[in-house]
């Protein structure tokens, strides 16, 4: 069948065969299918969808487009974590040392920020010397020594996803449950763990704006993982406002360290400990009833903070930042964004706060843009909190004032003040196992 016929098949709402899907993925990986044809099929998939069987075949073909990491020679149960992405989402940096302090081995391959969402690798690289580009052998050595390692993916893992994601990014074809599921799970299966905990975000700052969509994505991700032999679970969590009170790179590292010292913001603590507890259960390190207690103990005893120090050192980073935040990149200037009238913060729109942070230089518009690791946004008033006219709601941190006007416009637009206290959705909306 010619590739035009494959596109027409999906355009007309018919199911693709395994052969069609493998031909597509192999053709994209080898650059034999022109981008305009690949984009046409992607758009047909966005509009027509895919069955679970087609999505599983797509994931498998993308997984087999590259190598798989073999962690089988490492002792212990290896459990990964993945978030579908949000603003101020720094959970991995708290959770990796926390779960490792409880005896779970945490191999974590993370990404960079793009658009309004931040990236774990950019945040970690705010720590002087921290290397995210370890070889697979170095990654395994750190896992053996420390029990957790957070690195960038190697180009040999799921190369089909790299090509497809770049194409989806510029053809409005990111927001599709089968495409997101295959993209995420092909990479996670290539990473070689035994289990996986997923944080599927739902709300204004997430790909999935509604809870039914987020549940469907979670169900699809868990089904693919389970079918492939990976113990997989997902939490569905709210991403309407930024997580925690810091958005940026160095400022998010400070917030993670504060959290590991027992002084973190409530939402970040709740989500990090809930996900870490699920990792313990999946790894068989604790039963349902005790997992949360074990995690809380590792936080309170300082064991998780000690793991963080060891993790930073093993990656070549300067662990003195743990006690001296002045060693992290700083912003020279600040600008307060104030409430226009009295009331309660009803909404603090995550996507717009993320855009403000990006405009200040903390994020990138294009994959190769340089970023300012000292820049970002601090949240002084969270949704539900009372505010008086003239009080600071957001503080913009910057070194370069060129985009300050744009950042300030996004920040003002992000803030909604209501006369009565708002009813906020729960942070954790459910679990799919
Ligand atoms: N994250 C991914 O890795 N892939 C997607 O398609 C969307 C979010």
Strand order of the largest sheet: 1-4-5-13
Strand content: 15-25%
Structural class of the secondary elements? alpha/beta
C-alpha Rg, in Å?
21 Å
The count of domains is 3
Average pLDDT, rounded to a whole number, is 95
What percent of the residues sit in helical stretches (DSSP H or I)?
Answer: 40-55%
Q: In CATH, what is the class of the largest domain?
A: Alpha Beta
Tell me the span between the first and last alpha carbons.
38 Å
CATH topology of the largest domain: Pyrimidine Nucleoside Phosphorylase, Chain A, domain 2
Number of discrete helical segments: 16
Major sheet characteristics: 4 strands, mixed
Low-pLDDT stretches are none
List ligands, each type once. uracil
CATH superfamily descriptor of the largest domain: Nucleoside phosphorylase/phosphoribosyltransferase catalytic domain
**Level-2 CATH architecture of the largest domain:** 3-Layer(aba) Sandwich
Q: Rough shape?
A: globular
Describe this structure in words.
The chain has 433 residues and is α/β, with parallel strands linked by helices. The chain folds into 3 domains: 3-49, Transferase, Pyrimidine Nucleoside Phosphorylase, Chain A, domain 3 (Up-down Bundle); 79-325, Nucleoside phosphorylase/phosphoribosyltransferase catalytic domain (Pyrimidine Nucleoside Phosphorylase, Chain A, domain 2, 3-Layer(aba) Sandwich), CATH 3.40.1030.10; 330-418, Aldehyde Oxidoreductase, domain 3, CATH 3.90.1170.30. 43% of the residues lie in helices and 15% in strands. It has 16 helices and 13 strands. It has helices at 3-11, 18-29, 35-48, 52-63, 91-101, 120-124, 136-146, 159-169, 177-190, 211-227, 250-260, 266-283, 291-300, 303-314, 350-359, 404-414, and strands spanning 79-83, 106-109, 148-151, 195-202, 231-238, 246-248, 333-338, 343-348, 376-379, 386-387, 392-398, 415-418, 428-432. The strands form 4 sheets. Strands 1-4-5-13 form a 4-stranded mixed β-sheet, with helices on both faces. Strands 6-9-11-7 form a 4-stranded antiparallel β-sheet. A 3-stranded antiparallel β-sheet has the order 10-8-12. α10 links the parallel β4 and β5. The longest helix is centred in the middle third of the chain and has 18 residues, at 266-283. The two termini are 38 Å apart. The mean pLDDT is 95.
